[in-house]
Amino acid sequence: MKIERGCTAYVSGAGSGIGRGIALAAAARGASVAVCDIRAEAAEAVAEEVRGLGAQALAMALDVSDAAAVQAAAARIEEALGPVSLVCNNAGVAMHGVPLHEIELPDWDWVIGVNVMGVVHGIRAFVPRMLARGGPAHVVNTASIGGFQVNPDFLTGAYSMTKYAVVALSEGLEQELSGSGIGVSVLAPAAVATGIHLSGRARPERLGGATERAANHFVGDLIHDGAAPEEIGEQVVRAVEEGSFYIFTHPETRKWIEARHRRIEGGFDAAERMQPPARAAE
Ligand SMILES: NC(=O)c1ccc[n+]([C@@H]2O[C@H](COP(=O)([O-])OP(=O)(O)OC[C@H]3O[C@@H](n4cnc5c(N)ncnc54)[C@H](O)[C@@H]3O)[C@@H](O)[C@H]2O)c1
């Protein structure tokens, strides 16, 4: 789908990092952008940058883990900016550095609520509207390279669990929307220099409110020299225009996924060896 003047984009988590990068890349092509973030001031600041590029912007305080709020946002955005044809379900929070058995239940609600249900809510709010109008339109869900493997060094089981879910949701959505004129992509970056190590600042009030998550601080060091979010935004927009499903941003991470797949195939090799003779002959 071509992104140009006349298109409207919804970008969640657009007050910082990758979401801001996507918002600016879409605006640079003339698209109007609904800059949505749970942090209202951050959304307003990025909306100003969008306007600075000569595009229309609507800044909106939005918690994507709140289903009703996302539904209401969809209506308000379309009223203000016109039909949304690019949906970027991008908001996400880190949950690194704590062993799975020590993560408190409210933090499970938080990481699943934002990273998984935020995507579900975006799909439920926007896809019916897009289907009713027909394409061209496109949905981009932000997963992570952690949606394809669990990094053994950084205690990322909970975060990766949510990102595997985003990959599966995206694969399913692509299958279901095939032939509708609505494309789907899943974004799977590795290190990008953003504010994700400060995720605690965006914990919703009903889950305890803003907090310092000391366990996440090493993530800041990990991503410090990562890719520039503006470059990732540009890559996303190009992938939408080319209709690419998987958006990998770090070619060097390919070997991690290949290693995981070899391990899975080893499991099938073992299954073949363990088949009872009668079944093995079938
Ligand atoms: N930075 C990386 O290295 C990296 C790598 C892989 C994937 N990702 C993914 O990229 C996406 C964007 O993260 P980022 O790295 O740009 O981080 P970031 O913290 O810079 O940006 C995320 C934005 O989302 C907002 N947000 C948090 N909770 C929200 C909620 N409930 N509702 C709406 N907005 C909310 C935050 O306020 C913040 O502005 C996330 O889904 C993240 O998991 C990041």
How many runs of DSSP E, i.e. beta strands? 7
Outline type? globular
Count of spatially separate domains: 2
Largest sheet, in brief, is: 7 strands, parallel
Distance between the termini: 47 Å
Number of H/I helices = 10
Q: What's the level 1 CATH class of the largest domain?
A: Alpha Beta
Helical residues, percent: 40-55%
Instruction: Tell me the CATH superfamily of the largest domain.
Output: NAD(P)-binding Rossmann-like Domain
Give a quick precis of the structure.
With 282 residues, the protein is α/β, with parallel strands linked by helices.
What keywords describe this structure?
about 280 residues; alpha/beta; Rossmann fold; 2 domains; seven-stranded parallel β-sheet; about 50% helix; globular; binds nicotinamide-adenine-dinucleotide
Element layout with pairings:
Layout (H helix, E strand, L loop, with lengths): L7 E5 L4 H12 L3 E6 L2 H13 L4 E5 L5 H15 L4 E4 L15 H11 L1 H17 L3 E6 L14 H21 L4 E7 L28 H7 L5 H14 L3 E3 L5 H21 L2 H5 L1
Parallel strand pairs: 1-2, 1-4, 2-3, 4-5, 5-6, 6-7
Helix pairs in contact: 1-2, 1-8, 3-5, 4-6
